[in-house]
Write the structure tokens for this entry.
Amino acid sequence: MARGRERILEAAEELFGAHGFDRISVRDIADAADVNKALVFYHFNSKDELFETVLLKYFNDHYEALKGAWSMDGTVRDRLHRVIDSYVDFISTHHAWPRLVQQISSTQHKDYLPIVQQGLIPLVRWTEEALSEVADETGPRSAYHLFETIAGAVLHHFTHAPVLAPIWDQTPLAPAVIAERRDHLHWLVDVLLDALDE
């Protein structure tokens, strides 16, 4: 039974991310999960509840992955490199997540903005606390802006991969390209940290 719920969530994540909320039915999700439609409603009262569950699961898993990477020993630079690695790994295996959030933020799904905000709050608060030793409390060098800069640099690559592919004449999501992007993000973090030390 638990595995059925997991398959439903995996199918919903993929379909919602690829096609949006409105174009996907509970039947589509049940078929993709290879379960009976009744099982979807056994675990979730409605498509809305399933969508909210997918969103909040993303944010929780994302938060736990970054927090775990930061909690290991090392300098701030070492820990931020691990956070970047964890972030890239997470998005690489949950590529639908940034598309879902982008759809909600930029389309008619404004009703789900409070869910996105609810999921973001722990991430933003954790970032502020984690970076408090190197970032200013407010202003252009604050932890909030660092979070936005790093998150944007990671997410942009994944959300714009279909657009970038023909321009770059390569596959942005290929392992070698993601490894190169990871190295670039390490460099970006180093530049930011060096600037904060000035």
